[in-house]
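Render this sequence as a predicted structure.
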Amino acid sequence: MKNTSLLLILLISTFMTAQNNSQSTVDVTGNGIIRAIPDEVTISVRIENSGNEVKALKAQNDKIVNDVLQTIKAMGIDNRNVQTEYIKLSKNYQHNTKTYNYAANQKISVYLKDLEKYEPLMDALMESGINRIDGISFSSSNQLALQSQARKKAMENAVMKAKEYVGVLNQTIGKAVSISEFENTIMPQPMFRSMAMQDEGAQSKQTLAPGELEIKAKVTVRFILN
């Protein structure tokens, strides 16, 4: 019985000590946005053909792929910036004719560091035999530095919010006791993404409008409330 009483006293003492040592906190979410003009683009193109003879079809597709890769190389684009994303060969049943035919396609992505080469490259790719453009993706060569700037702005935003909240209560914030980062995002601004063809009689054409990128960071910070 004596041991039980002693254990109970110790538990109560530990609980009271924990209560006295606990500190109030304030949790805030900070957002940071950095905008930048993209200076790089990744172009995804596809070569696809269909036919009744699988060997002849593959040979046809392979020839066009070779022409496309040679065209890209002739533009001075490094092999490291060219990648085959997939190769597919499928057999399809035609219900109308009760026969089979085959479809072959290959997707290639080209990472272009110089946007000035975009127009000549696209013209050359069209002439070399591609028959589908799957899309383009803009990026920045300064991406890591921009993400770092966005994180700093997010932390500054969190500190500002915390000070505003506790200032109304005539209190202050202490040190940060935890920081949680959400997944950062890089989003292109859509208003400049449309393709614009040249006017008749124009001296030059423009089919690419990069617009700007939005690099976003989001953090949740817990501060001690003084």
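Summary. Confidence is low (pLDDT under 50) at residues 6-20, 190-202. The beta strands are 25-36, 40-51, 82-94, 99-112, 132-139, 173-181, 185-188, 213-225.
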